[in-house]
Amino acid sequence: MLLQIVASGLSSGSIYALVALALVITYKTTEVPNFAQGEMAMFSAFVAYVLIVDYNVGFVVAFGAAIVFAFLLGVGFEGLFLRRTKNPTHLNLIIMTLGFQLALFGLAGWRWGADQRQFPFPVSASEVVRFGDITVSTLSIATISIALALMAAVFAFFRFTKLGVAMQATQQDPMAARINGVPVRAVVALTFGISSVIGLVAALLTAPLITLDPTLMWDPLLKGFAGAVLGGMNTPVGAVLGGYLLGVVENLFGAYVSVEFKSAVAFLIIVIVLWFRPVGLFGRQPPRKV
Amino acid sequence: MSFFSVRSLSKRFGGLTALDDVSFEVEKGSILSVIGPNGSGKSTAFNCINGIYKPTAGTVHFEGEQISGLKSHRIARRGLARTFQNIELFANESTVDNLMLGRHQHMRTGLWRGMGMLGRTTRAAREEVENRARVEQVMETLDLTAVRDRPVQELPYGTQKRVELGRALAMDPKLLLVDEPSAGMSPEERADIGERLRSLRDDLGLTILLIEHHMQLAIDLADRVLALNFGKVIALGAPEEVRSHPEVIKAYLGDG
Amino acid sequence: MTLRELDHYADVQLLPGKAAVVKLVVLLAVLAVLPFVVPGYRIFTLNYMAIFVIVGLGMSILVGDTGQVSLGHAGFMAIGAYTSVLAMTELGAPFLIALPAAALVSAFFGFLLGLPALRLDGPYLAIATLGFGLAVTLIIGHGSLFGGHMGLVVPEASLGPLPLSGDISHYFLIVGITVVLAVAARNLGVTRVGRAFRAIRDSPIAAETMGVDVAYYKTLSFTVSAAFAGIAGSLLSLMNGFISPGVFSFTLSLMFLAMVVFGGLGSITGAVLGSLVMGYVNLRMDAVQEIPVLGPALQGFSDAFMSPSGLPNVGWVLTGLMIMLTIMFEPRGLYGVWLRVEDALRWLRRRSASGGTATGAG
User: Fold this and answer.
1) Dihedral angle computed from the Cα positions of residues B190, B196, B197 and B198, in that order, rounded to the nearest 10 degrees
2) Per the CATH hierarchy, to which homologous superfamily does domain B4-79+173-253 belong?
3) How many Å lie between the alpha carbon of B82 and the closest alpha carbon of chain A?
4) Chain A closest-CA separation from residue B245 CA (Å)
């Protein structure tokens, strides 16, 4: 029974981990949490949906198109809006992301209404596979595998490609990076693009579980934030671990304490972590300069 | 008991030792110039003195009482004011309002009296008028009256430096820490600020700790000089002595 | 110059001079007469806008002055609303007691949220307040005491012997309180506490260096700001006749933030203007098609290209765009736009004056 709960916790945790990862890589570059993350992913997921349902495009092609859309959406937001902010204080940039979130939410609601739709995901949520005592849906397996594969790809990208290393350098010290010839502005825009794509994958993995509507990513975004805060907002690996940890803890809470208040776990974690150790379990405190 | 004393002050940041066993005393009504190459720990020392950093070791005493370990706002209330090397003005506020912050600890208007300030006779209003009068005086001595209502971020750099000084003076401090007052100034402006600091000591009896990169200004103003290098004291004494001290010369010119 | 003029009291005076007094009198007269001039069903709209102004004043203190972020202010409003209603239903308290109780309880929670806020900056604080707002909605939505999803019905209220029923009596109560709170907020801003708040926003280190107990004032800012939202919540419950958790959503918190940003952070006038606009937009989002000219055009566009029932979402799009455009181009918001208009008018006046004398008439 316990293993079962943990297993499903890993499945939901995969989604939280993806969202957390997406948040953290843009946070590291700009020190601004992208609150529009969720709606960007939601909107891109709708694009995929429209292609599949209205235009009869196959899932793979639609997925590819949605990735391109998500990427451009991220790059566009950063390059056209965020960068052009007159007085880019942290507060102002946070508010920018909130404004974008609201606008996207409204646009999605306007275009597609509040109707709840079934997202045609190729892997079913109802088919199950048995591993000894544990019963896992094929969707859960797909979720965990896809998430892990994507995260591995992202980490490999950061570690082993020239562009990825440039991005890491920009995150650590933009001034030094610029001096060393790194095109910082392009890198920041790219970071947003990649982050948006990661978010899209999270949205596509979430959609089959619940219905597709503009509020799709509200819960995952919050949980992603909680995971990132728990793990550490300036460490991608930490954030991912935080996401998984949250998934498991949340499920344990739901099974043994209360199902109704399951979501409260995320809030509690946020409050407790921010109170006792704001940098997160695996994060590090940046020094203050005067 | 001396007016102001620092004993064995040390500050470490992880593996980096910014200050190492620094000790010195300051007499009331005198100017102590603190000199040293970049990174020698001068601003760190100021930050430890006014409570922005907590010292790793050592103590700071002011008027016989220990102030090290206290929060900055408590240290301010003891009568210690400071300016910042990189100007930490309240950018969106006017000159007047910046200086009025200096009066914060001398005023008592709180939430309710502030909200209920309706009319000249209320306590809040009277306190405002009283303290504004003091601020006007300070602004006059620093030639800031003309820019009193301008947001300080619009002011030229030299003027901003004067506002920064004015803010500290508006606190009516007993001890003033000035961090690189002449940075970025022309020779005329530098001479001007030097004059002002000198008259603060001579006319108002203010005790001043002065970090100054411009060697001549530091020497001219000082009653005594403290030289730091790599966080350690390398010389302490009369201006000309310190200036010609071999360690000091070596620190500034390098070894070879 | 007389001695009076020399003392700079005009810096903080509410009504510096006869012109200001006249303006105030005119404003109060207009407000007093408005409910009798405007069609009956619009009075509710005015009340709603006034309530938004109350929250906006509180947000201005917290976000505009002290520079803290709150994404959870709907939570304080909810706390105020539910406290007020429960005080009346469970404790039998009259509205005269329920309203201050709402303010106090909200203030208390504001204080609680202010404590972690001491260690948190920018993004972390935003997330913490987000969590708080959602937690409030979650608890209210599931607790039986709070009536769950269905919410609670607000009992008949009266202010002493005067019954508080009908939009007009609500109007005078709400607008009256709004005016008082606006003056209070304005006064707070120009005195010692307000200056301390703004110092914290601009440079917490310098503020602390000058003797401002940053921890105390940050917490105070949250407390006061929450109290304002709590009062607004209590008044909202009165207006609506019932309350339910659905009202106090994250999007409402976003609206609250949007309105002070849009109005102009750091200015009471801006906060009031922004709140009036957003309050109106929020209430009338469902009736976009009624806007002259633009309404039917949007409706047509919507029917052709968008979802049939989705038109009210235009309100969100509009709000989001307003926020982004404000931050991108005129961070001082509506108030900044107003200042520019003033500058332009002054420039025109000067030009016409000098043009006249330089070139002569004709």
Assistant:
1) 110
2) P-loop containing nucleotide triphosphate hydrolases (3.40.50.300)
3) 13
4) 30
